[in-house]
Amino acid sequence: MILKSQVEWALHCCAILAGLPEGRYLSTKALAELHGLPKEYLSKALQSLSQAALVDTTLGPSGGYRLARSSSEINFLDIVEAVEGKARSFTCTNIRENNPCRPAGYCDSKPCAVARIMWEADEAWRDTLRRVRLSDLVGILSEEVRPDLWQSTFEWVLKRAG
Amino acid sequence: MILKSQVEWALHCCAILAGLPEGRYLSTKALAELHGLPKEYLSKALQSLSQAALVDTTLGPSGGYRLARSSSEINFLDIVEAVEGKARSFTCTNIRENNPCRPAGYCDSKPCAVARIMWEADEAWRDTLRRVRLSDLVGILSEEVRPDLWQSTFEWVLKRAG
DNA sequence: GGAATTAAGGATATAGAATATCCGCAAAAC
DNA sequence: GTTTTGCGGATATTCTATATCCTTAATTCC
Ligand code: SF4
Ligand code: SF4
Questions:
Q1: What is the pLDDT of residues B40-56, one digit of tens each?
Q2: Which of A14, A106, A145, B123 sits a CA distance of 20 to 30 A from A23?
Q3: Where in this chain does the entry annotate a coiled-coil region (chains A, B) (predicted)?
């Protein structure tokens, strides 16, 4: 059970977009260069964010991406689910139906305990991600990243933001 | 991010093993028939349980598997990790190292905030699974499964337990 | 208006993981 | 000694993640 690397990419890109001045856009090309990622493939992750309405886009030179809402109104789960999908990690294949002792026509009223417990754990994972806002991440990064690196990155981004 | 179906298989098999009388064993063949699963592949899941020391095995006719500990001393996480591995679901590829603004020789003191938050969610998932004991599952199932099915399954298993 | 740049989406190729089967070995039962 | 069993290795198949390429339409700038 491993998350796609696109999840990491999307989270980092959103953190960068959160630092953009009002109304500016940043292109896939810039985001790919900044993170050292394949531009074409990163583009797929950004398209996922776009489809989830987390970011706004615009075309043409000086086009690119910006957050669709304030960074305090976007949480980790929004981003992770946009890329990874909303499906639960445990999928029930209903193997209890294969029990040879099962009476013909027997119909289970509800999902069995195994599935419910696994889904509960899944929900705990989602809850944790839901509680962390993108703005929280930016706050932590701004404290932890070395100030000179933080500032030079910021300048690098602004130079390329349309 | 989807768990292997072997996780479901292992959980169901453990629930069955928990109902075995003291000292009896149940074979892969019986477990595969009971759940309608491919015997050879289910065997791999059971081998994982064995390697994790969750079950004891014995060879020969009347051989098979039994729990290595009481069902109240085995939790869901034990079983899930035995099959799925203990690796975290979020793997950090350290893309921040590709930042072109990064000073040469800069070395990060600790994993960045993105990774820590994702790992925190992972830990919440594990915590939930850790809190549920195998005996809890058996308790729920014994209440929810129709009594006649529960009993006939029990008899079916006993007939094949060595 | 025309050239350049961009996001979007479809098609396709590659790598790796999950799923599944088969075989040979050693231990245990009879 | 024969059968049954768990175990591990080897292999095949299917599916997903990863990655690239190409076309289209919108936008900017000249
Ligand atoms: S997880 Fe529950 S519902 Fe799904 S197959 Fe197993 S017993 Fe049935
Ligand atoms: S998750 Fe954190 S440590 Fe990992 S690459 Fe991203 S910034 Fe770096």
A1: 999 999 999 999 999 99
A2: A145
A3: none
Which atom of ligand 1 is nearest the CA belonging to A93? Answer: 5
Show which positions of strand D are touched by protein (CB under 7 A). Answer: 3-8, 17-22, 25-29
Residue with tokens 């603004």: B101
Contacts of B79 (CB under 8 A, 6+ apart): B7, B10, B11, B14, B49, B54, B134
Residue A102 has pLDDT above 90, yes or no: no
What token pair was written down for B125? 């998932």
Whether residue B38 is predicted with pLDDT greater than 90 in this model: the reply is: yes
Confidence of residue B58 (pLDDT cuts 50, 70, 90): very high
Candidates A100, A113, A128; nearest CB to B120: A128
In whole angstroms, D24 C1' to B95 CA is 32
Largest CA distance in chain A: 71
Q: How far is the C-alpha of A133 from the C-alpha of A59, rounded, in Å?
A: 28
**Could you give all domains of chain A from N- to C-terminal order, each with its CATH number?**
5-87+134-160 (1.10.10.10)
